[in-house]
Amino acid sequence: MSALLDQTPTGPEPPAGLHYDAPLWLRGPQAWAGNLQTIWAAKFCRKHGIEAPRYRRERWTAPDGDFVDVDWLDDAPVGPAGERALLVLFHGLEGASDSHYSLAFADWARARGWAFAVPHFRGCSGEINLAPRAYHSGDYEEVGWILERMRARHRGPIVAVGISLGGNALLRWAQEAGDTASRIVRGVASICAPLDLAACGEAIGRGFNRQVYTRMFLRSMKPRALQRLALHPGLFDREALLAAGDLYEFDNLFTAPLHGFRDTDDYWDRASAKPHLARIRIPALVGNPLNDPFVPAASLPRVEPPGSWVRLWQPAHGGHVGFPHGSFPGHVLSLPQVVGSWLAKI
What are the sequence ranges of the domains in the chain? Predict the structure, then answer.
């Protein structure tokens, strides 16, 4: 066992206070540890404290007339309106406010007395949206509109966390916003973001990943796409979409053309956050475990851009949005504790 663990790659020196070690009972050969930590955290770990967080839903009208559903933590202690911080979480592909990581961050915010909100990307709140557009990894305009609205209604400091797809979209917003981002948020953190979408798309489209994760995502994404087709006949080729066997094919038929990209290659190239990290002008934590089965370690940035506001955190373990901790069966509360503490200090 120890010999196998010694083969784990190492990342850049972590920022102060950021540390994660997987429990020994969820380690193993490096090729499988990432999958174990990913699946176990999502399916079997404890996701919150004694009582599950309660949400209050708001429906916002988007600039195009469609709607976005936002779930607010409804049971956090009420602090001074001008001082209480707000943590906004952008979920991952096919995620929601009840995803294991959302509940864990809500639990952390409640314990700290922070306000907490999960805006749902279109189609992910349990009801299909009105417009043909959905969401994608580079959806920085939607992220920007949501954060602008959060800023307009909240007087205290705001920080934002993006998980997986939501992390990449959040970084793309910070990159596009440049110097103006600090007017809206104090800082951002991305966790397990697919910073190089082409590399991540290739990784999830082969072997075990294709048989397990790709099938899982497509089982959710295809029905939602078909719901949009029922509302907007002719939006795409129904039979071709049903035959799509991986995310590359799905994005070529649905995601790319619906959101103004030429094809999957154009989408993955233009939406990837990795090439633009030096454009960020607010404190930004970019966290990526080196054993993430979706995000190859070789595709990660290894050096922070000179003068950058970016801090890279690349722990050896964690899986894809896993970070299980504690004795069997474990919990997923350590990730928000580590990331939230970093955000609270900026």
Answer: 9-196+277-345, 197-271
Strand pairing category for 86-90 and 115-119: parallel
Q: Give me 162's structure tokens.
A: 């993006």
Per the structure block, which two tokens stand in for 36? 């174990």
Whether residue 164 lies in the annotated active site = yes
**220 part of the active site:** no
Q: What mean pLDDT do residues 228-234 have?
A: 97
Q: Are 47 and 103 in contact (CB under 8 A)?
A: yes
> Catalytic residue at 276?
no
- List the catalytic residue out of 320, 325, 331, 334: 320
Cis peptide bond prior to 336, omega within 30° of 0: no
Q: Give the other-Cβ count within 10 Å of 18's Cβ.
A: 17
Lateral strand order in the sheet of 67-73: 55-61, 67-73, 115-119, 86-90, 158-163, 187-191, 284-287, 310-313
Which architecture does CATH list for 9-196+277-345?
Answer: 3-Layer(aba) Sandwich (3.40)
Distance CA 68, CA 86 (A): 19
Query: Is the pLDDT confidence value at 157 over 90?
Result: yes
pLDDT surpassing 70 at residue 78 = no
> What's residue 82's pLDDT?
54
Q: Which of 164, 190, 299, 334 is catalytic?
A: 164
> Which pTM value belongs to this model?
0.94
Whether 342 has a pLDDT exceeding 80, the answer reads: yes
Of the residues 71, 107, 139, 292, which is catalytic?
292
CB-based contacts of 153, cutoff 8 Å, min separation 6: none
- pLDDT exceeds cutoff 90 at 79: no
